[in-house]
Amino acid sequence: MPESREIRRYRRFAGWDYTKGASLFITIAIEPRRLIFGRIVNGKMSLSPLGEKVKEAIEVMPQLNSGLKIFGHVVMPDHIHFNCALMPGLHEPLKVLGNAVRRMKNYTTKLARLAEHSSAIAAGRGAEGTAIAAAGRGGDGRYSNDGRIAFGKSTIWQQGYHDYILVSREMIDSTERYIAYNPKKWELMYGVGSGLRIMEPLCSPRLCIGDYWKGVGNLTLLGEDAKMVSLRVSREVTSPAAIANLVRRLEAAVDKGYIVISGFISKGEKAVRNMLCRRTDARFVRVLPSCIPNRRFKPDSIYVEPFAEGRYLELGRGNDEIAFGRGACLDVNAEIIEIATAGEGLSLYWKADGPHVLAKHSLANNAEAVGETGIGFSVNSAGARTEGQTIFGQTRRGL
Q: Which of 126, 171, 246, 263 could join 332 in a cystine, given CB atoms 3.0 to 4.6 angstroms apart?
């Protein structure tokens, strides 16, 4: 009875024919949440003895459960993630998955109860117990004051499991990246001097003094002397050749030290974002169409490395949630232009017929600052485009 009740409760996609096979992203957490599987050190998981056993138990699941395959997986301090596949043709595929999870839980719970009496974990005085206590999140009840683990239930795990069905290669790849980056994300979110602390209200010469801004990341990217280029790309720019050309031009800007600021909403903007995330020397700012929520910040996996390397800043205005739509996108476009051109900056709008650039310099009285910008076009002493100037290596006439 308990087994079938668990499977029915956690069936997330009732319309899916699981007998034809399924790829699933599984999350299972400790209940109550205790940091018993190890700690994060320099962005990587350092497993406790129990954490090592949990990792082994996940990896051996396909050997004990025919028709199940395990792919990317990670053991975190108080939860686990893994991607799995149910092979086509199974008679009761969800029962296969439920049984596999139950076996893993039962085995690791027995090991945890044995470890409960060990000097390293239960007493909280050994090296491992000290590490567990130090890794706790203060003030939220996730660990006891001395690092002691106290099991008041028949299992250390939450009931059931959280599953998310993956219906495309893109979704599978995204969850694989999420699994790979999860330890570094944890460290950014919960480490000492958290790299993902929400800063508010922000004060910067590039931001309108009358607006309430929040930010997460490297605020120095908004420095008054920073060279910025705002990027807007029309939704009509969709061809692979046009997007590849766009990305090459923005790479030239990065080579010259420009910081790219955008909403990264359209297909072309996202292609540039992917390039910026890959390049370890690229610095960029993302302006959200809505506010940054008033809770602990959880970044998308693609931004974890840029956050950790200090080359990314995320901005949101106000405290009110705004519905995503054309109006919100237009507001983002207006903001990125103002921010970029408030200092030494440019505004780039890439349309179906190619790039259009408006340039402005706050240092217009500085003869050295207003000449050649260094990325393929120049501005005159008033900060306006010159006739016939080149834009990222392409000659165009005035707008």
A: 263
Inside any domain, residue 199 = no
Contacts of 84 (CB under 8 A, 6+ apart): 23, 24, 26, 61, 68, 69, 70, 71, 97
Between 240-255 and 267-278, two packed helices, what is the crossing angle to 10 degrees? Answer: 40
If 0-12 CB within 10 Å is exposed, 13-18 middle and 19+ buried, where does residue 292 land? buried
Q: Which of 240, 35, 237, 55 is nearest to 133 (CA)?
A: 35
DSSP code for 384: P
Return the residue matching tokens 């910025």. Answer: 228
DSSP for 95-163, written as a single string: HHHHHHHHHHHHHHHHHHHHHTTSTTTTSS-SHHHHHHHHHS-TTTTSS-TT------SS-SBPSS-EE
Residues 150, 22 share a domain:
yes
3-state secondary structure of 217: strand
Q: Is the separation of the CB atoms in 375 and 392 below 8 Å?
A: yes
CA distance 235 to 268: 8
What's phi and psi for 340, nearest 5 deg? -65, -40
8 band by pLDDT with thresholds 50, 70 and 90? very low
Residue of 320 and 305 predicted with greater confidence = 305
Residues 275 and 343 in one domain: yes
118/383 Cα distance (integer angstroms): 71
**Could you report the per-residue pLDDT of 169-220, keeping only the tens digit for each?**
888 888 898 898 889 888 877 775 566 788 888 888 899 877 889 899 999 9
CB atoms within 10 A of CB 140: 9
The mean per-residue pLDDT over the stretch 47-71 comes to 94
Residues 291 and 385 in one domain: yes
CA–CA distance, 240 with 221 (Å, rounded to integer):
30
Q: What percent of the chain has pLDDT over 70?
A: 74
Instruction: Give the residue numbers spanning the domain of 121.
Output: 2-190
Strands 390-391 and 354-361: unpaired
